[in-house]
């Protein structure tokens, strides 16, 4: 039982390049989330998926797209990376009953030069 | 917008002392959650308190919730060096409990 896994762990991009961050969970959770964390700050929600086939914007969706590929996988895509997107990205998942806690992946550290 | 706002931003104490962190929020909530983040790692859930609860305990953790003041506090008793981490409160702004907002966190340093 690996929990929430993210790939890659580190990535350096040049401005304008694109990439996809991958996230998978093996806990049969319905809800999945993408956050970014900037130095010294809390997490900000980018997008979330309450269930397979649905996605919704969070606080800071501009410059990102997401895909809920199936119940296990939720990917985050940067179409044209900008230096302002330099951050640590966390994926999380949550069970569907009640208001259960979120389980977080280890994060992807992204630098855009 | 940052719904959860913790204070203090940083706290430094000696091992064995108690640490208290506070969180304020702006809208009505169904529950409030506290998370811990060790340096360079993902967040780990500590405790959840529902809006109809006033206090909750889990081991050395005690959480209180005052919905009239829109505030919560996290108390860690008899702190240990291993408690050194950042602590965040989180609330969900929407009725479905999905659109989570995290505060900027309190960085706790426990000195041996």
Structure explained in plain terms:
The complex is a heterodimer of chains A (113) and B (112). Chain A has 113 residues and is mostly beta strands. Chain A has strands at residues 4-7, 10-13, 19-25, 31-37, 43-49, 56-57, 64-68, 74-78, 87-94, 102-104, 108-112. Chain A is globular. Chain B is an all-beta fold and 112 residues long. Chain B has one domain (5-111): Sandwich (Immunoglobulin-like), CATH 2.60.40.10. Chain B is globular, with a radius of gyration of 13 Å. The termini of chain B are far apart. The interface between A and B is medium-sized, with 26 and 28 residues.
Secondary structure blueprint with pairings:
The complex is a heterodimer of chains A (113) and B (112).
Chain A: E1 4-7, E2 10-13, E3 19-25, E4 31-37, E5 43-49, E6 56-57, E7 64-68, E8 74-78, E9 87-94, E10 102-104, E11 108-112
Parallel strand pairs in A: 2-11
Antiparallel strand pairs in A: 1-3, 3-8, 4-5, 4-9, 5-6, 7-8, 9-10, 9-11
Chain B: E1 5-7, E2 10-14, E3 19-24, E4 31-37, E5 43-50, E6 55-58, E7 61-66, E8 71-76, E9 85-92, E10 100-102, E11 106-111
List keywords for this structure.
heterodimer, A: 113 residues, mainly beta, seven-stranded mixed sheet, four-stranded antiparallel sheet, 11 strands, 0% helix, globular, B: 112 residues, Immunoglobulin-like, six-stranded mixed sheet, five-stranded antiparallel sheet
Going by helix content, strand content and strand pairing, the class of chain B is: mainly beta
Q: Report strand % of chain A.
A: over 45%
Main β-sheet of chain B, in a few words? 6 strands, mixed
Q: Per DSSP, what share of the residues of chain B sits in E-state strands of 2 or more residues? A: over 45%
Beta strands of chain B, count = 11
Unreliable spans of chain B: none
Tally the beta strands of chain A: 11
Mean pLDDT of chain B: 90
* Helix-strand topology string of chain B: EEEEEEEEEEE
Uncertain segments of chain A are: none
CATH first level of chain B: Mainly Beta
What is the CA–CA distance across the termini of chain A?
A: 36 Å
Q: What Rg of chain A is obtained from the alpha carbons, in whole angstroms?
A: 13 Å
Shape of chain B: globular
Q: Please report the distance between the alpha carbons of the first and last residues of chain B.
A: 37 Å
Number of helices of chain A: 0
CATH architecture annotation of chain B:
Sandwich
CATH topology of chain B: Immunoglobulin-like
């Amino acid at each position: 039982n690996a929990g929430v896994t993210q790939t890659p762990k580190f990535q350096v991009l040049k401005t304008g390049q694109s990439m996809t961050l991958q996230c998978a969970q093996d806990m049969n959770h319905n809800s999945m989330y993408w956050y970014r964390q900037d130095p010294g700050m809390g997490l900000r929600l980018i997008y979330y998926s309450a269930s397979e086939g649905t996605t919704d914007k969070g606080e800071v969706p501009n410059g990102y797209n997401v895909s809920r590929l199936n119940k296990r996988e939720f990917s985050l895509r940067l179409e044209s990376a900008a230096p302002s997107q330099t951050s640590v990205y966390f994926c999380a998942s949550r069970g569907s009953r009640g208001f259960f806690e979120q389980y977080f992946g280890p994060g992807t550290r992204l630098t855009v030069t | 917008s940052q719904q959860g706002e913790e204070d203090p931003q940083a706290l430094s104490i000696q091992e064995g002392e108690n640490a208290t962190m506070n969180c304020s929020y702006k809208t009505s909530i169904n529950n409030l959650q506290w998370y811990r983040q060790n340096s360079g790692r993902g967040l780990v859930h500590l405790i959840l308190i529902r809006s109809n609860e006033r206090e909750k305990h889990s081991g050395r953790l005690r959480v209180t919730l005052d919905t009239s003041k829109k505030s919560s506090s996290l108390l860690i008793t008899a702190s240990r060096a291993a408690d050194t981490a950042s602590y965040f409160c989180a609330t969900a702004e929407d009725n479905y409990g999905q659109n989570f907002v995290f505060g900027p966190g309190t960085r706790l340093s426990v000195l041996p």
